[in-house]
Amino acid sequence: MIPSVCFFRVVACVVVLLLSLVKASNGAERRECGIIVYIHVGKTGGTTVFDHLQRRRYVREFLSLGNCNSVGKGKYGYEDQWQTLSEIVRDMSTSKPFKTRTPKRTNKWSSKDKWEVGPPASDPHSPWWAFVHSHTCAPGLLWSFDRYMEMKKKMEESGSGCKMILSTTVREPESRFWSNYFYQAKNGKKGFEIPKSKSAKEQHAINVIKEHPNPQSTVLAFNCDLVSDPQRPNCSAAAASTARVSTAALLSVLRSMSQLVQSCNVSCDVVWCGASVQTWSLVDDSVVSTLMEDLQQFDVVGRSHKLTDFVNELLRAANFTEVGEMPHDNKNSHHEDRDYDLAKIREVLHKYHGSDFKLFNHLFPS
Predict the structure, then answer these.
(1) Tens-digit pLDDT profile for residues 214-259
(2) pTM assigned to the model
(3) Residue 332 φ/ψ, nearest 5 degrees
């Protein structure tokens, strides 16, 4: 009786061993791969994240989704950029992912960087990641979220082992206001010319707050959806008809936006264009609720003042080597404590940027 039990145990062990070897063999044939999508909201640390990720050795491809400079007559249009992303998704969604692929862009990696170098791109077992940077001229999540989720589902249900990581960063609204305020002033943005006298400075800051309500949640939800540009039909006012949420002010904005954009003479900067003339917010409670639901389904959502933690969480998701500390790129000096009544400014911010505070506090309650 005892010998037969031992025999069956030995057979079972052999079967388990063979299955594990087969599984390991199948895994060895696969290339570790995926797509990192980063939704870049201005003045939330996005330039630092962008510069770091496109330098990583295993980021073989880079796609700027909604690149303003690429849009226009005879140029690489927005839908062309989406098509490129769709092709990458399709290639990474086969049962056996690609063994060879040509990088779409040479990354900024150099021998001076200290990141893990690993095997070359020609090695079929070398990890292969694409980095998608979605910034100023990309539609907001009210339009693009479902499209991202459809791509993500296709990849993850394909059995290829490749995955799509959706990510973004947000910033405490008061901190973001001051950072953006002085950044725009430094770069000569129209409407951000800071007066010299202390009283005029304070009133100017208050006016800017009122004229540009809820900037973070507006960018996340709409971004350039409301810009009337015939060269980008899916990044135009017409895109709002497919948005999952509409606001009380939306129809009024759409009716007047085509005239406003022409007078503003900018191609996509809807936050500074339309809002400079119309002071109501495009974001209401239903939009905030939708953003909360959308971001809940993101893989990694970080905050600016803990940018290293965000980047490392993103790197772990892609099985990359983590970093010790992130440099701070695109930083500008702040002088808000010199010439402004911070308590007064804060009160105005909570009134006109209330949705931004609500979204941020929901994401990071402590």
Answers:
(1) 999 988 988 765 544 445 445 544 555 556 655 444 444 444 443 4
(2) 0.80
(3) -125, 155
C-alpha–C-alpha distance, residues 149 and 165, integer Å: 10
| pLDDT, tens digit (0-9, with 9 covering 90-100), for 33-55 | 999 999 999 999 999 998 888 88
> Starting at the edge strand that comes first in sequence, how are the strands of the sheet with 59-65 ordered?
59-65, 128-134, 33-39, 163-170, 300-303
Q: How far apart are CA 193 and CA 290, in angstroms?
A: 35
Cβ of 96: how many Cβ atoms within 10 Å?
13
- Beta-carbon contacts of 102 under 8 Å, excluding residues fewer than 6 positions away, are none
